[in-house]
Amino acid sequence: MKEQYLNLMWDFMRQAGQIALKFYNDKQFTLKQDGSVLTQADQDISRLIHQKLDPLTQTGEHILVEEEDPQRGKYLDQQLLERTRFIWSVDPIDGTRLFSNHMPLFGISIGLIKEFVPWLGMVFFPVLDELFYANGARAYYIQHPFSERPQQQEIESVDLDISNQTLFLMSDTFFKNYQWSYDNCRFLVTACATINLCWPSIGRACGAMDQSHLWDFAGSWPIVQKAGLQLRHLKTGEVMDRLDARCFMADEHPWRLKDYYIVSSRRNYDILRNKIIPR
Protein backbone atom coordinates (compact mmCIF):
# COMPACT_ATOMS: atom_id res chain seq x y z
CA MET A 1 0.00 0.00 0.00
CA LYS A 2 2.74 2.47 0.94
CA GLU A 3 4.65 1.76 -2.27
CA GLN A 4 1.48 2.32 -4.28
CA TYR A 5 0.99 5.74 -2.73
CA LEU A 6 4.65 6.71 -3.13
CA ASN A 7 4.58 5.68 -6.79
CA LEU A 8 1.47 7.80 -7.25
CA MET A 9 3.29 10.77 -5.71
CA TRP A 10 6.35 10.31 -7.91
CA ASP A 11 4.24 10.09 -11.06
CA PHE A 12 2.19 13.11 -10.03
CA MET A 13 5.29 15.19 -9.30
CA ARG A 14 6.93 14.31 -12.58
CA GLN A 15 3.86 15.38 -14.56
CA ALA A 16 3.08 18.39 -12.35
CA GLY A 17 6.64 19.65 -12.71
CA GLN A 18 6.34 19.47 -16.48
CA ILE A 19 3.12 21.49 -16.35
CA ALA A 20 4.69 24.14 -14.10
CA LEU A 21 7.70 24.56 -16.39
CA LYS A 22 5.43 24.75 -19.43
CA PHE A 23 3.64 27.78 -17.99
CA TYR A 24 6.57 29.31 -16.10
CA ASN A 25 7.02 32.14 -18.60
CA ASP A 26 3.30 32.58 -19.27
CA LYS A 27 2.19 36.15 -18.52
CA GLN A 28 -1.50 35.23 -18.08
CA PHE A 29 -3.01 35.08 -14.60
CA THR A 30 -6.19 36.00 -12.74
CA LEU A 31 -6.95 37.12 -9.20
CA LYS A 32 -9.25 35.16 -6.92
CA GLN A 33 -11.80 36.83 -4.67
CA ASP A 34 -9.34 36.79 -1.76
CA GLY A 35 -6.75 38.63 -3.88
CA SER A 36 -4.47 35.63 -4.37
CA VAL A 37 -3.07 34.78 -7.79
CA LEU A 38 -4.38 31.96 -9.98
CA THR A 39 -2.55 30.66 -13.06
CA GLN A 40 -3.23 28.04 -15.68
CA ALA A 41 -0.59 25.85 -14.06
CA ASP A 42 -2.58 25.84 -10.79
CA GLN A 43 -5.69 24.73 -12.62
CA ASP A 44 -4.03 22.05 -14.74
CA ILE A 45 -2.13 20.54 -11.80
CA SER A 46 -5.32 20.60 -9.75
CA ARG A 47 -7.10 18.58 -12.45
CA LEU A 48 -4.17 16.18 -12.57
CA ILE A 49 -4.27 15.33 -8.87
CA HIS A 50 -8.02 14.81 -8.95
CA GLN A 51 -7.54 12.37 -11.83
CA LYS A 52 -4.82 10.53 -9.89
CA LEU A 53 -6.76 10.30 -6.64
CA ASP A 54 -10.32 9.78 -7.87
CA PRO A 55 -10.06 5.96 -7.66
CA LEU A 56 -8.99 6.29 -4.01
CA THR A 57 -11.40 9.01 -2.90
CA GLN A 58 -14.30 7.01 -4.32
CA THR A 59 -13.59 4.20 -1.82
CA GLY A 60 -14.56 6.40 1.13
CA GLU A 61 -11.25 5.74 2.92
CA HIS A 62 -9.55 8.77 1.36
CA ILE A 63 -10.33 12.47 1.05
CA LEU A 64 -8.47 15.22 -0.81
CA VAL A 65 -8.04 18.71 0.64
CA GLU A 66 -6.70 20.78 -2.24
CA GLU A 67 -6.26 24.53 -2.61
CA GLU A 68 -8.12 24.97 -5.88
CA ASP A 69 -11.11 22.81 -4.89
CA PRO A 70 -14.05 25.18 -4.18
CA GLN A 71 -15.56 22.52 -1.86
CA ARG A 72 -12.43 22.02 0.24
CA GLY A 73 -14.05 23.50 3.34
CA LYS A 74 -16.63 20.72 3.54
CA TYR A 75 -14.06 18.38 5.07
CA LEU A 76 -13.17 20.72 7.93
CA ASP A 77 -15.13 18.72 10.47
CA GLN A 78 -13.43 16.68 13.17
CA GLN A 79 -16.09 13.98 13.28
CA LEU A 80 -15.92 13.52 9.51
CA LEU A 81 -12.12 13.37 9.64
CA GLU A 82 -12.26 10.73 12.37
CA ARG A 83 -14.16 8.48 9.98
CA THR A 84 -11.51 8.91 7.27
CA ARG A 85 -8.30 6.89 7.37
CA PHE A 86 -6.28 8.81 4.77
CA ILE A 87 -6.24 12.58 4.15
CA TRP A 88 -4.37 13.84 1.10
CA SER A 89 -3.53 17.52 0.84
CA VAL A 90 -2.09 19.16 -2.26
CA ASP A 91 -0.92 22.61 -3.24
CA PRO A 92 -0.63 22.74 -7.05
CA ILE A 93 1.63 25.80 -6.96
CA ASP A 94 2.82 27.16 -3.63
CA GLY A 95 4.23 30.63 -4.16
CA THR A 96 1.92 31.43 -7.07
CA ARG A 97 2.69 35.15 -6.90
CA LEU A 98 6.40 34.36 -7.33
CA PHE A 99 5.58 31.90 -10.11
CA SER A 100 3.49 34.49 -11.95
CA ASN A 101 6.43 36.91 -11.77
CA HIS A 102 8.79 34.27 -13.24
CA MET A 103 10.73 33.76 -9.99
CA PRO A 104 12.08 30.27 -9.23
CA LEU A 105 11.07 30.05 -5.54
CA PHE A 106 7.82 28.13 -5.88
CA GLY A 107 6.98 24.53 -5.14
CA ILE A 108 4.47 21.74 -5.71
CA SER A 109 3.42 19.90 -2.57
CA ILE A 110 1.59 16.65 -1.81
CA GLY A 111 1.16 15.10 1.61
CA LEU A 112 -0.64 12.04 2.96
CA ILE A 113 -1.85 12.02 6.55
CA LYS A 114 -2.67 8.57 7.95
CA GLU A 115 -5.01 8.37 10.93
CA PHE A 116 -4.27 12.04 11.76
CA VAL A 117 -0.46 11.60 11.70
CA PRO A 118 1.74 13.05 8.89
CA TRP A 119 3.05 10.01 7.04
CA LEU A 120 4.21 10.50 3.42
CA GLY A 121 5.20 13.78 1.82
CA MET A 122 6.81 15.15 -1.30
CA VAL A 123 7.73 18.69 -2.38
CA PHE A 124 9.22 19.57 -5.76
CA PHE A 125 10.80 22.86 -6.84
CA PRO A 126 10.79 22.52 -10.65
CA VAL A 127 13.04 25.44 -11.61
CA LEU A 128 15.54 24.69 -8.85
CA ASP A 129 15.24 21.00 -9.81
CA GLU A 130 15.18 19.94 -6.16
CA LEU A 131 12.84 17.45 -4.51
CA PHE A 132 12.27 16.60 -0.85
CA TYR A 133 10.33 13.55 0.27
CA ALA A 134 9.50 11.39 3.29
CA ASN A 135 8.66 7.72 2.80
CA GLY A 136 7.27 6.97 6.25
CA ALA A 137 10.61 5.89 7.67
CA ARG A 138 13.19 8.33 6.31
CA ALA A 139 13.39 11.61 4.41
CA TYR A 140 15.56 12.58 1.45
CA TYR A 141 16.75 15.58 -0.54
CA ILE A 142 17.34 14.99 -4.26
CA GLN A 143 18.91 17.22 -6.88
CA HIS A 144 17.82 16.57 -10.49
CA PRO A 145 15.25 13.97 -9.33
CA PHE A 146 13.83 13.10 -12.74
CA SER A 147 17.13 13.03 -14.62
CA GLU A 148 19.27 10.03 -15.49
CA ARG A 149 21.62 10.84 -12.61
CA PRO A 150 19.68 12.07 -9.57
CA GLN A 151 21.80 13.05 -6.58
CA GLN A 152 20.12 11.85 -3.40
CA GLN A 153 21.08 12.33 0.21
CA GLU A 154 19.28 11.30 3.38
CA ILE A 155 17.98 14.10 5.59
CA GLU A 156 19.31 13.77 9.12
CA SER A 157 18.56 15.67 12.32
CA VAL A 158 19.66 19.29 12.12
CA ASP A 159 20.09 21.80 14.95
CA LEU A 160 21.96 24.91 13.78
CA ASP A 161 23.73 27.29 16.12
CA ILE A 162 22.08 30.69 15.75
CA SER A 163 24.41 33.55 14.79
CA ASN A 164 24.61 36.52 12.46
CA GLN A 165 25.32 34.02 9.67
CA THR A 166 22.08 32.06 10.04
CA LEU A 167 18.76 32.89 8.43
CA PHE A 168 15.20 32.64 9.76
CA LEU A 169 12.49 32.32 7.10
CA MET A 170 9.22 34.26 7.26
CA SER A 171 5.99 34.62 5.35
CA ASP A 172 5.12 37.91 3.70
CA THR A 173 2.49 38.63 6.39
CA PHE A 174 4.96 38.60 9.28
CA PHE A 175 5.37 42.36 9.64
CA LYS A 176 1.64 42.96 9.85
CA ASN A 177 1.74 41.73 13.43
CA TYR A 178 5.39 41.41 14.52
CA GLN A 179 8.83 42.98 14.55
CA TRP A 180 12.19 41.22 14.53
CA SER A 181 15.03 41.56 17.03
CA TYR A 182 18.26 42.04 15.07
CA ASP A 183 20.79 41.22 17.81
CA ASN A 184 21.75 38.02 15.97
CA CYS A 185 20.38 36.02 13.06
CA ARG A 186 18.88 37.65 9.99
CA PHE A 187 15.60 36.89 8.27
CA LEU A 188 14.47 36.14 4.73
CA VAL A 189 10.92 36.73 3.52
CA THR A 190 10.29 34.04 0.93
CA ALA A 191 6.50 34.29 0.37
CA CYS A 192 6.57 30.52 -0.13
CA ALA A 193 5.58 28.17 2.70
CA THR A 194 7.18 25.08 1.17
CA ILE A 195 10.52 26.88 1.01
CA ASN A 196 10.08 27.92 4.65
CA LEU A 197 9.62 24.33 5.77
CA CYS A 198 11.93 22.40 3.45
CA TRP A 199 15.03 24.57 3.60
CA PRO A 200 15.54 24.32 7.39
CA SER A 201 15.41 20.52 7.03
CA ILE A 202 18.75 20.60 5.18
CA GLY A 203 20.31 23.41 7.21
CA ARG A 204 19.71 26.33 4.86
CA ALA A 205 17.97 28.17 7.71
CA CYS A 206 17.65 27.78 11.48
CA GLY A 207 13.86 27.78 11.28
CA ALA A 208 10.78 29.51 9.95
CA MET A 209 7.53 31.08 11.04
CA ASP A 210 4.28 30.85 9.16
CA GLN A 211 0.51 30.73 9.39
CA SER A 212 -0.19 28.42 6.51
CA HIS A 213 -3.04 26.42 5.06
CA LEU A 214 -2.93 22.66 5.42
CA TRP A 215 -2.00 22.19 1.76
CA ASP A 216 0.97 24.52 2.25
CA PHE A 217 2.65 22.29 4.82
CA ALA A 218 1.14 18.79 4.54
CA GLY A 219 3.85 17.63 2.13
CA SER A 220 6.67 19.17 4.17
CA TRP A 221 5.34 18.10 7.57
CA PRO A 222 6.80 14.55 7.68
CA ILE A 223 10.03 15.80 6.09
CA VAL A 224 10.46 18.39 8.84
CA GLN A 225 9.87 15.74 11.49
CA LYS A 226 12.54 13.44 10.05
CA ALA A 227 14.97 16.38 10.27
CA GLY A 228 14.35 16.59 14.03
CA LEU A 229 12.33 19.79 13.69
CA GLN A 230 8.78 20.44 14.84
CA LEU A 231 5.93 22.89 14.27
CA ARG A 232 5.47 24.67 17.60
CA HIS A 233 2.75 27.14 18.51
CA LEU A 234 4.29 30.61 18.67
CA LYS A 235 2.82 31.48 22.07
CA THR A 236 2.44 28.16 23.87
CA GLY A 237 5.23 26.06 22.38
CA GLU A 238 2.80 23.18 21.93
CA VAL A 239 3.96 20.80 19.20
CA MET A 240 1.57 20.12 16.34
CA ASP A 241 2.25 16.49 15.47
CA ARG A 242 -1.31 15.43 14.63
CA LEU A 243 -4.04 16.87 12.45
CA ASP A 244 -6.73 18.59 14.51
CA ALA A 245 -9.53 20.50 12.77
CA ARG A 246 -9.78 22.82 15.78
CA CYS A 247 -6.40 24.37 14.85
CA PHE A 248 -7.77 25.74 11.57
CA MET A 249 -10.05 28.57 10.51
CA ALA A 250 -13.37 27.48 9.06
CA ASP A 251 -15.03 30.54 7.51
CA GLU A 252 -13.27 32.99 5.21
CA HIS A 253 -10.03 30.98 5.08
CA PRO A 254 -10.88 27.30 5.53
CA TRP A 255 -7.90 25.14 6.49
CA ARG A 256 -5.71 28.10 7.40
CA LEU A 257 -4.03 27.82 10.79
CA LYS A 258 -5.61 30.05 13.41
CA ASP A 259 -2.22 30.98 14.86
CA TYR A 260 1.42 31.29 13.89
CA TYR A 261 3.79 28.35 14.31
CA ILE A 262 7.58 28.25 14.51
CA VAL A 263 9.47 25.50 12.70
CA SER A 264 12.68 24.77 14.58
CA SER A 265 14.59 22.41 16.81
CA ARG A 266 13.51 22.29 20.45
CA ARG A 267 16.71 24.08 21.51
CA ASN A 268 16.19 26.98 19.10
CA TYR A 269 12.48 27.48 19.70
CA ASP A 270 12.92 29.66 22.80
CA ILE A 271 15.70 31.69 21.17
CA LEU A 272 13.62 32.39 18.07
CA ARG A 273 10.41 33.08 19.92
CA ASN A 274 12.16 35.76 22.00
CA LYS A 275 13.29 37.49 18.79
CA ILE A 276 9.68 37.85 17.57
CA ILE A 277 8.19 41.02 19.05
CA PRO A 278 4.43 41.77 18.84
CA ARG A 279 3.60 45.19 17.40
Write the layout of secondary structure elements.
Elements: H1 2-22, E1 30-31, E2 37-38, H2 40-57, E3 62-66, H3 78-82, E4 86-94, H4 96-100, E5 107-114, E6 117-125, E7 130-134, E8 139-143, E9 151-154, E10 167-170, H5 174-177, E11 178-180, E12 186-189, H6 193-201, E13 207-210, H7 214-217, H8 221-226, E14 230-233, E15 261-264, H9 266-275, E16 276-278
Parallel strand pairs: 3-4, 10-12, 10-13
Antiparallel strand pairs: 1-2, 4-5, 5-6, 6-7, 7-8, 8-9, 11-16, 13-15, 14-15
Helix pairs in contact: 1-2
Task: Write a brief structural summary.
29% of the residues lie in helices and 27% in strands. The protein is an alpha+beta fold and 279 residues long.
